[in-house]
Write a structure and sequence with these properties.
This protein is an alpha+beta fold and about 200 residues long. The chain contains eight helices and nine strands. α4 packs across α5 and α6 runs parallel beside α7.
Length: about 200
């Protein structure tokens, strides 16, 4: 990829991709989902401060995240109402994720970061569809190519179908072939929360 992270950064300023990079959105080039991606993310400053005070880093266990998702935020739940699997996850939950008192457990943790978009480099647009597709459940997606495809129409058609933006960044500059579709989360899942914790681990 010509220019590496710089070429990806140029893509942030292209068309609606630039509009997605709103005030308060940070950018970081990180290894994630078996690729390298430039992420646009926003820290939950209140949660980050709380975690730092409690010396709580990222939460990687899907079992613990599943438990947290089943607990209402800030409301005590009798421990006797938990399932066996939930009680097992509770025993391994790090301090600061939950609090326990008087036979009740209270969820304290929330997602520490939100991700607005992922921009990924790709040698070919077909490879880019697969790589960017990994981020489909999590955020808006853009691929960056270092040379113009032979058939722009095929690229626009396929990328638009999947909602993936396409930018060509070469020596002549930056050209948008397809706009990314806005991201609409259908539901928040354990995998979605785990993705955000992974991002937090990379950028915190």
């Amino acid at each position: 990829m010509t220019g590496g992270a710089e070429a990806l950064a140029d893509a942030v300023g292209a068309a609606s991709i630039g509009r997605a990079a709103a005030e308060g959105v940070c950018h970081r080039f990180v290894p994630i989902l078996r690729t390298q991606a430039l992420l646009g993310y926003r820290l939950n400053e209140q949660e980050v401060t709380r975690r730092q005070a409690r010396q709580l880093g990222s939460i990687s266990s899907p079992d613990i995240l599943d438990l947290l998702m089943d607990l209402p935020l800030g409301l005590p739940v009798p421990m006797k109402s938990l399932t066996r699997r939930e009680r097992s996850a509770l025993r391994s939950a790090p301090p600061g994720a939950v609090s326990i008192a008087d036979g009740e457990v209270t969820r304290e943790a929330v997602a520490p970061v939100a991700v607005d978009f992922a921009i990924v480099p790709a040698r070919t647009w077909r490879a880019g569809l697969e790589i960017a597709g990994r981020f489909a459940p999590f955020c808006m997606r853009i691929m960056v190519l270092n040379r113009r495809p032979c058939n722009d129409n095929d690229v626009r058609s396929e990328a638009s179908y999947y909602g993936i933006g396409v930018v060509v960044a070469d020596q002549r500059g930056t050209d948008v072939l397809a706009e990314p579709a806005p991201f609409r989360r259908r539901r928040f899942t354990v995998a979605g929360w785990q993705f955000l914790e992974n991002v937090y681990h990379r950028v915190a």
